[in-house]
Amino acid sequence: MIIREEREGEHSAIHRVVEAAFGQPDEADLVDALRRDRDIVLGLVAVEDRGEITGHVTLSKMTAPVRALGLAPVAVTPQFHHQGIGSQLVRECLDRARTSGWDAVFVLGEPHYYTRFGFDASLAAPFASPYAGPHFMALELNPGGLSGKRGAVAYPRAFSLF
């Protein structure tokens, strides 16, 4: 399996993967809307040996007092669950964001899953968001990137549509 950036001709396949992963079209429609609005900063796919796309992750630019990205959604086709594909996608997108000079990544998700990557609700707490709470977490990509920072953060417009 390889992890690489999504390509123009793969949007339909990505839509199918995301829809299958969540068992409904909303998250796949979200990815399409983010792409249409040009809010995706990074979209990565996991491709297995025969060339089939088995997973996808999206980072989109957030409005924030720091250079921040939103991680969502992370999707893996159900028959490829529990093989570490989602973790590989998350690690790779975080590494790429770090080397591209971003300060932080925010995520709304399951703490048990995302804390393994270093996400922490206490890092997100100083930032006002309609998603504030234990499932709203942040990760500093560079040490001190969020230290002393506070203010409002917002996901791209497409998130409000679904």
Layout of SSEs?
Layout lengths: L1 E4 L5 H12 L3 H11 L3 E8 L5 E9 L6 E9 L8 H15 L4 E5 L2 H4 L6 H4 L2 E2 L7 E5 L10 E2 L10
Helix pairs in contact: 1-2
Can you give a write-up of this model?
- The chain is an alpha/beta fold and 162 residues long.
- It has 5 helices and 8 strands.
- The protein is globular, with a radius of gyration of 15 Å.
- The mean pLDDT is 95.
- The longest helix is centred in the middle third of the chain and has 15 residues.
- 36% of the residues are buried.
- The strands form 2 sheets. Strands 1-2-3-4-5-7 form a 6-stranded mixed beta sheet.
- Strand 2 and strand 3 form a beta hairpin.
List keywords for this structure.
162 residues; alpha/beta; two-stranded parallel ribbon; 5 helices; 28% helix; globular
Number of alpha- plus pi-helical segments: 5
Question: How many E-type strands?
Answer: 8
Across the major sheet, the strand order is 1-2-3-4-5-7
The helix content is 25-40%
State the end-to-end CA separation: 31 Å
Structural category: alpha/beta
* Radius of gyration computed on alpha carbons: 15 Å
* Range of strand content: 25-35%
Q: Estimate the global geometry from the Cα principal axes.
A: globular
Provide a quick synopsis of the model.
The protein has 5 helices and 8 strands; from the N terminus they run βααβββαβααβββ.
